[in-house]
Amino acid sequence: MPQRQHCGAQLDTMLHTLVECAAWEPERSQLESVCGPAAYLGSMVEAMLRSKEWWQAIPSFCESVMAQKETAELKR
Fold it and tell me: Which position among 47, 62, 64, 66 has the lowest Cβ density within 10 Å, counted as fewest Cβ atoms?
């Protein structure tokens, strides 16, 4: 399997993106400043329903990361 462009990992899974990938540390740090460390894992929908701040923070993280991944894919 080819390595991922963002960090060189063999697999680019959801868990890798949310917890492990160094490429998304700034976005993850911002998310965790609202939700706490990995408090959003398990059921993201349930996590989003906890508060208005979480409702905004989780999709914001996802949108930012996905936009950057899509831009990188287009450049390749």
Answer: 66
- Residue 37 tokens read as 């460390």
- Identify the residue whose tokens are 């996802």: 62
CA 6/CA 44 separation, integer angstroms: 23
Enter the pTM of the model: 0.75
pLDDT band at 5 (very low <50, low <70, confident <90, very high): low
Residue 51 and residue 41: Cα distance in Å, rounded?
15
Where does residue 36 rank: exposed (0-12), middle (13-18), buried (19+ CB within 10 A)? exposed
- Residue 58, C-beta contacts closer than 8 angstroms, at least 6 positions apart: 31, 35, 40, 44, 47, 48
